[in-house]
Write a structure and sequence with these properties.
By secondary structure, the chain is of the alpha+beta class. It has a single domain, classed as B-lactam Antibiotic, Isopenicillin N Synthase, Chain (Jelly Rolls, Sandwich). It is built from five helices and eleven strands; from the N terminus they run E-E-E-E-H-H-E-H-E-E-E-E-E-E-H-H. Helix 3 crosses helix 5. The longest helix is centred in the C-terminal third of the chain and has 35 residues. The radius of gyration is 19 Å and the shape is globular. The termini are far apart. The mean pLDDT is 94. It binds fe (ii) ion (FE2). It comes from Nakamurella panacisegetis. This is 2OG-Fe(II) oxygenase superfamily protein.
Length: 257
């Protein structure tokens, strides 16, 4: 049968929406409650909607009963402190799964390449229903930071780098594309991340805000790109070696037992 997807995301897996005038809003993301939750770097998360309305960030499939990233439950204490962020997440009218603000400490392009990952938004998602994609609304004004998107984790060809000033709004099929942010700093980056179900509501929202599947690429010096790529290869190899060594040690321990 297949999933219901957005035609707008078919070509590149993402669209950049019209910029939002973030400067007019209070900094609601500084008032809400954060949780230590490590994901792709030195991060904390403040959920607005979670599996059962608790201030926690676990995937919905890790709860009982397990379910896909849909039907998130709004957390009253957080929504009260962040009504504008909540309204923005609800604006498309599409089903919302997880909705949270990420706080990311500064990192480097090499860190970002090592952090590249695909999300698991559609685990347990029933065939024939809407494919879950994610909105990223940059809240802090991170003019020199950028989001990196790749079709393949280790292949730099065709890499997309999208600028992250305050008000930048991206919609990404994060299960398809490898993604992570390069955040220059010096202050933490804040971004509202919402899981939305694809369908006519989301399509209308993409159209209303002129979803563009071909963002202007942020320019980065070739030597920085090359050094980042080399460092990613080095870290992946080091990690594989560490895992292999641990496997050997565990095997040895088991054979001694
Ligand atoms: Fe992700």
């Amino acid at each position: 049968m297949g999933y219901i997807t957005s035609a707008a995301l078919e070509e590149t897996g993402y669209v950049v929406l019209d910029s939002y005038n973030q400067e007019l809003d209070p900094k609601e993301w500084l008032d809400i409650e954060y949780n230590d939750w490590k994901s792709s770097g030195d991060t904390r998360f403040a959920p607005l909607a979670s599996a059962f309305g608790e201030i926690e960030c676990n995937g919905f499939w890790n709860h009982v009963p397990p379910r896909t990233d849909k039907d998130g439950v709004w957390i009253p204490s957080q929504v009260e402190k962040a009504p504008i962020l909540t309204r923005r997440a609800q604006e498309p009218g599409a089903n919302v799964g997880r909705c949270r603000v990420i706080e990311l400490q500064p990192n480097t392009y090499a860190d970002c390449l090592y952090n590249l990952h695909q999300d698991d938004n559609n685990r347990l998602n029933p065939d024939g229903t809407g494919w879950v994609v994610r909105g990223f609304f940059n809240l802090s004004d991170d003019k020199d930071s950028f989001f990196v998107l790749r079709d393949n984790r280790t292949d730099p060809s065709g890499e997309t780098r999208i600028a992250l000033p305050a008000g930048a709004q991206l919609l990404i099929d994060t299960q398809r594309l490898w993604h992570a942010a390069t955040h220059v700093g010096p202050d933490p980056r804040y971004c509202l991340i919402t899981s939305w179900t694809s369908g006519p509501e989301l399509d209308a929202y993409i159209e209303k805000y002129h979803g563009n599947p071909h963002a202007q690429n942020v320019e980065v010096a070739q030597d920085v790109l090359d050094a980042g790529q080399a460092e990613q290869s080095r870290r992946i190899a080091a990690r594989a070696a560490a895992l292999a060594a641990r496997g050997r040690i565990e095997q040895a321990a088991m054979s001694e037992a």
